[in-house]
Amino acid sequence: MVKICCIGAGYVGGPTMAVIALKCPDIEVVVVDISEPRIAGWNSDHLPIYEPGLDDVVRQCRGRNLSFSTEVHRHVSDADIVFVSVNTPTKTCGLGAGKAADLTYWESAARMIADVSVSDKIVVEKSTVPVKTAEAIEKILSHNTHRRHGGGGGVRYQILSNPEFLAEGTAVADLLSPDRVLIGGRNDTPAGLAAVAALRDVYARWVPPDRILTTNLWSAELSKLAANAFLAQRISSVNAISALCEATGADVAQVAHSVGKDARIGPHFLSASVGFGGSCFQKDILNLVYICECYGLPEVASYWREVIRINDYQKGRFVNRVVASMFNTVAGKKVAVLGFAFKKDTGDTRETPAIDVCKGLLGDKAAVSIYDPQVTGEQVSRDLAMNKFDWDHPRHLQPITGTDVAGQVAVAADAYEAAREAHAVCILTEWDEFRGLDYKRMFDAMHKPAFIFDGRNVVDVAKLREIGFVVYSIGKPLDDWLKDMPAVA
Ligand code: NAD
Ligand code: UDX
Predict the structure, then answer these.
(1) pLDDT tens-digit series, residues 78-101
(2) How far is the centre of ligand 2, averaged over its atoms, from the C-alpha of 269 (Å)?
(3) Which residues are annotated as a binding site?
(4) Binding positions for NAD(+)
(5) Which domains, and CATH codes, for the chain?
(6) pTM metric for this prediction
(7) Are 231 and 269 in contact (CB under 8 A)?
(8) Contact between residue 117 and residue 155 where contact means Cβ atoms under 8 Å apart
């Protein structure tokens, strides 16, 4: 029986291994993590992440051929294939701070593999890493093996790059039916080819052969960064056009629909928004920018950096619009924030645009009342008290200095409570439930003029204007009120 061990029981490691266990009942799959609370969560009825369909998959496999454990060394030692799915955050200090990927967690996982292994292993990069990481990991593993085993006949490792393309909120569906599975390996040696074939055999249980792509290691590593950069670039492109739509009276939804009808462009990932969030896009583009700079390609670096600049511009533009529309001040005014997660169907708040928007409103002294169906008040407080990039460095967490937002932030049990006696409502996540709210009920309980700022284009603008709201919806024609109160970009 093949045994798989995955280091890192996070948003990628947990769902990916659960689906492998589901589709390969003859393979034993163990997910290990140094975080005891995370493993306890995976072993309980309340999984540590919210992902539609995941409970069901875990329930079917846990105790059969899927387990979660903190006994990292034992399970790594026993495994034939070791996936490494640890976090690879942006560096917060030292060389490349604010851009380069921090490979501390990756390197310590690799050194641990070298320390505990007594049999040959295939080591699979699941985390998103800079190009050439596999080569570095190979060096760590082979040098340490030689030291332990006296130079000859030691443990042999094959490194594969198998980046993950799942998106949160649709992780299970993405894993069950991926657009492609990418396996990068050393295709110039028999051992390399055998390792690629072994991993391909795992996925081939449910993924059609033409969707399993094999490349060299560096192409696989770079493809992941490039794919995320292309996706984020589409969002920044449509968001840039949304600003022009507001200025000209065009409607971004109509423009995006018309543009996306071109088969060469396609309809996906063209929804204008308050900005993209999530743990991947910004981090991976910054990493790409850093790599370009390191290889002496400043023009390429600045091209991709612009994708992030437009994203920051979009979030700032939204805050400015809110403040400018409300007579240039929100000081002491209650603003309801509907949605805090970085997208619908997840409780994940990493790099959510809601953090920047809320901080902007708090900076202007608003009283913010937040409702999100999946995000706890504790999480909101943590996020609003954190400096940029700190969220993925648990050991370095520092509260923001000189800012006391405690008295300005409340967390509401539902959208109506958040909006009660508010001056404005900001919609920051596209949760389905926000489409069906009783906006008349909300309007009646709000101060007048009552404003709605829709950062996700979920509301019916005409209907809300009929109720009496002043409505702003990203990239939509402005009503007269907003035209008279221009926001500084
Ligand atoms: P995560 O923070 O949710 O999970 C990482 C886990 O690794 C944590 O639970 C942490 O405790 C554990 N860990 C860190 N060092 C460890 C060690 N030495 N031994 C054992 N456990 C250790 O991160 P994630 O969102 O699952 O992302 C993991 C990787 O996958 C990142 O490189 C990310 O860029 C990439 N990725 C993420 C997504 C996504 O949607 N979240 C999608 C594709 C790729
Ligand atoms: C992304 C990639 O899609 C996935 O392939 C990769 O493995 C990890 O990073 P994720 O961040 O989970 O996945 O979600 P995604 O659906 O890509 O959304 C990212 C952000 O972009 C969200 O904040 C979302 O709301 C926003 N977005 C997405 C838009 O603003 N407009 C769109 O048209 C699509």
Answers:
(1) 999 999 999 999 999 999 999 999
(2) 8
(3) 8-13, 33, 38, 86-90, 127-128, 168, 280-283, 350
(4) 8-13, 33, 38, 86-90, 127-128, 168, 280-283, 350
(5) 3-215 (3.40.50.720), 251-484 (3.40.50.720)
(6) 0.95
(7) yes
(8) yes
Q: Judge if the beta carbon of residue 342 lies within 6 A of ligand 2.
A: yes
> DSSP letters along 43-100, please?
TSSS-SS--TTHHHHHHHHBTTTEEEES-HHHHHHH-SEEEE-----B--SSTTTTTS
Pocket of ligand 1 (CB under 6 A): 7-13, 32-35, 38, 72, 85-88, 105, 108-109, 127-128, 164, 166, 168, 279-280
Ligand (nearest to CA of 284): 1
Q: Which residues pair with 43 in a beta bridge?
A: none
Mean pLDDT for back-to-back runs of 10 residues, the chain (489 residues): 94 98 98 98 96 98 98 97 95 92 93 95 95 90 66 79 98 98 95 97 98 96 98 98 96 98 98 98 97 97 98 97 95 98 97 97 96 96 81 49 66 98 98 98 98 98 97 93 73
* Residue pair 202/24 in contact by the 8 Å Cβ criterion: yes
Residue nearest to ligand 1 atom 21, measured at CA: 33
Tell me how many degrees the CA angle 92-136-89 measures, rounded to the nearest 5. 25
Instruction: Tell me which amino acid residue 105 is.
Output: Y
ipTM confidence: 0.98
